[in-house]
Amino acid sequence: MSHTAHIPSHRKPRRSSSKLALRAGVAGGVLSTIAVAASPAQAEPVTETVEMPALTNVDLSGALSTAVAASAEATQQDVLLQDLRAQEDAAATQAAKDAKKAKDEAERKAEAERKAKEAEEARKAEEARAEAQDRASRTSERSSLSTTSSSSAGGGSSYSAPATGSAAAIVAFARAQVGDAYVMGATGPNAWDCSGLVQAAYRQAGIDLPRVSGAQSSMGTSVSLDNLQPGDILYWGSRSGSYHVAVYVGGGKYVGAQNPSTGVVERSLDWDRPSGAVRIL
Length: 281
Description:
alpha+beta, 6-stranded antiparallel beta sheet, rod-shaped, 6 helices, two-stranded parallel sheet, single chain, 8 strands
């Protein structure tokens, strides 16, 4: 017996041929599978599926409604903003127009007032000039009349003869009212119209005269202005249709209720030459 016979052999036991064939077939199949998988012509796409959360109809409808509502609100706000701006622009334009209109009206009014003031001043200046000329003319006429009266026979007595009797009472009453107001239709005691004053003066002599100037100048007898006596009634206009009367007080003067601006005054005959005269006494 060999000295190694009792030592177990380290060599792997031989496999049977059938097992070797099986393993070879398996290995070949695996290699074939790998080869097929590695071949580009035979590669199949790999699809990876990602699961997404499912959306229900309720979710989609709510989101859409919210989006539509937000869009509508934004549109409405934009429309309101544009309308507000348009109103502000219109208000500013109208305010500018109103301001310009007010300015133009104020300027027009100021210009009208200025022109009216200038016209009034021009009128007053013209009246003053005319009054000055009239006074100068009357002064000249008075001087001429005085000269003529003093040179005429007996003519001077008509301007210088003193009032006596009833005439004195008439003259005294008329002169006492100088300075009273003129009021149409007034018969005293502090305001008169022309015929009211003459009527009241003659009443001092116990003579009742008609109320109006036309009737008063129709009474008595007509006398010349060159032969006047105190107490005679002077008239302006025609004798039967006079529009103004006064009392001759002597010295070439008369007293009469002239107009609202002068009241009762004593004036020279040549200040406003009468149309004629009548004598009742």
